[in-house]
Amino acid sequence: MARGLLLSSQSRTDTANILLASFSKIPRKPCNASLAFPMYHHYHHQPRSSSAQHPIDMSKYREAFSRRMAMAGLKPHHRIALGVSGGPDSVALCVLTAWWKTAGLNADNGGLIDGLLAIIVDHGLRAESKHEANVVHHRVSEMGIRCEIAHCDWPNGRPKLGHLQEAAREMRYETFHKICAQHQIGVLLIAHHADDQAELFILRMSRNSGVLGLAGMPFTSQIFSTHTHSSNTVPLNYGILLVRPLLEFSKEDMYKVCQGGSKDWVEDPTNQSPLFARNRIRMSLTDLSSSAFKSELQAVISACRMTRLYIDQVCYSLINQAVIIMDHGYASIDIKILNPSNIVDICLCKFISLVLQFISQRQRPIRGRALKLLLDYIRTFPCKNSLTAAGCYLCPDPGSRGSRILVCCSVNCPLPLKMEVFQSRSDQEQECSVFYELEEIIEDGKYHARQLVPNASNVHFLDVTPEFVLTEAKRLNIISESTYRNIIVLQKEETNRFKSKAEVTTNSNKKHEVDFVTTFGKLFELGNICYFMNRFIITWELNDKITGGAFSDFFTYSKDLGGESQNYCCVSCVVGHNTRPEVRNMCESDWLYLAELSKHPPSDDFQLQGTTSSSEMGQMMEKRTPCLHYASVSAQKALLLLKSIPVAARRSMPVLVNQKGQLLSIPTVNFSHCPCLMVHAEFKPKIPLGGGHSSFI
């Protein structure tokens, strides 16, 4: 969060003058860049002389902003949140968004702009951060923007310096997501601009990123919370749409917009600290401030973005044509339709990554040896072998003669299985309205993006390895020799500073451990909803009122109960009234148990005669323990369904067991040990296929 140095505009309110007067009393001290968290001191800073001498034309900024908002599919009536730090970038975002909203709606609500919320995240890493957040809150509120401050808690202690920026970013976006969900807002605007893209380009060049990484930050992208927000029936983890409408603007533009809007901002002295890679790159880029260098650097970034836009479109087309997602949680890839031998490596790698990340719900990038193995595997026709990689198990589809590949979630990956349990909520209708509005926005954004997808002949870096991207850009006259040399120098400087970090691996002994992430501190209680491995949504309930219809699919009745229900409790049933089931993945012993259970069919005299009274039927049910008969027939039907599901896919299917480990239900094949127990499971991965909508226009 940008904090510290207070910049004043030409005009300000009396309240702001009082605040500034109080800040000016604080003695100024030089900032020690070697400190992890230097003290922040506020003092006056006059507007830049060039801006003071020449009036700022706000119309060009407003027009550019309106155009980008339309390209994102956004209209002034949509509910929107802003990520605000108080720095010049986010203040400029507030100025332009407030104008765009009011110009489009021509109305306000008691001095506050309707449908606009600014979110200030106080990371709580410094003693003065709370006070600074209040100052920013005051200024943003004066613009007519409703504002909310979120204070972060660090239960495991403050993050270490080496992980500080990453930890703060994760906390910030999780907070954004939570507050947007609370306020039923589906869109979040962030103030990243062209200079941020340039810094990221150099940073990723130093990490040997390919053209997909060098494309930088997307213009729009869906982000998904690590925690699920639920409704009455199913969790609505539609994510929020992150939009960066200022990517065409420079840092200098940010200052001009603030000054043109007569708004104050704050600067963060830690932005000058060489401890952080972005700061070092930013200061180096400042030394190379010629307009030619900046223009050519943005041109090569734009070429990378066009390449990424083309690759994404190719991958989505391949997914629609060659991939079938099965309800039991696995995917089938038709190799004949895919025709991988005619697909360039970079497109095929991206395609494979998207499918595997969806099935495994592990969003880690697939790189190096694993990606090469997958590339060779999918290009081998017919497919005859199996492969485990990136949290997935790949094998030929039985009966396809190697023309189809099955992609199943591997339960033998080093990550622990995850079970998230949460309570249902009553605001389903409101959440659904946000979901449908977001779908409409995304579809409009996709329409604009499709208009800008280049032809293959205009895509420059499809066959270029990471180390030759700049060389190819120079050959195509996108950049000059001097710009090429300057970028190489920056890249080498940062590469020499970069120290690789050892990957943290999970102890293999814990690979079958179930990690209970219980939002409300409870296990899988009756009436709750479970998200298993981020893939299956599970609900369950007990019904102690049994009607003839409960058995109608399993046994033939000649007695009409007349709609009456019977109180029923089976003495021998493994489902008790105090059951709190646990969820795990299916294993071979479950299959064997079903096979044994299916060998005990119901006796012939279980068919009830028409002369049997309701009370006699209840006694007979208790005497004959019909749950065992019900379970036996249910097992037979489940085995028939399981035969149609590949063995590899069965292993990741959820099963419910009681606290003694006894099998209660396999909901994906409709097996239940008792008619009282009703379980529903749906394959609904938390992050959708393709990782959600994103656009690099």
UniProtKB/TrEMBL annotation:
Protein's recorded name: tRNA(Ile)-lysidine synthetase
SUPFAM superfamilies: Adenine nucleotide alpha hydrolases-like
InterPro entries attached to this UniProt entry: Rossmann-like_a/b/a_fold, TilS/TtcA_N, tRNA_Ile_lys_synt, tRNA_Ile_lys_synt_N
Lineage of the organism: Eukaryota, Viridiplantae, Streptophyta, Embryophyta, Tracheophyta
Superkingdom of the source species: Eukaryota
Keywords: ATP-binding, Ligase, Nucleotide-binding, tRNA processing
Catalytic activity: cytidine(34) in tRNA(Ile2) + L-lysine + ATP = lysidine(34) in tRNA(Ile2) + AMP + diphosphate + H(+)
E.C. code: 6.3.4.19
One example of a Gene Ontology biological process annotation: tRNA processing
Pfam families, per the entry: ATP_bind_3
GO MF terms, alphabetically ordered: ATP binding; tRNA(Ile)-lysidine synthase activity
Domain annotation tRNA(Ile)-lysidine/2-thiocytidine synthase N-terminal: ranges: 80-283
PANTHER family registered for this protein in UniProt: TRNA(ILE)-LYSIDINE SYNTHASE-RELATED, TRNA(ILE)-LYSIDINE SYNTHETASE
Record Gene3D superfamilies: HUPs (3.40.50.620)
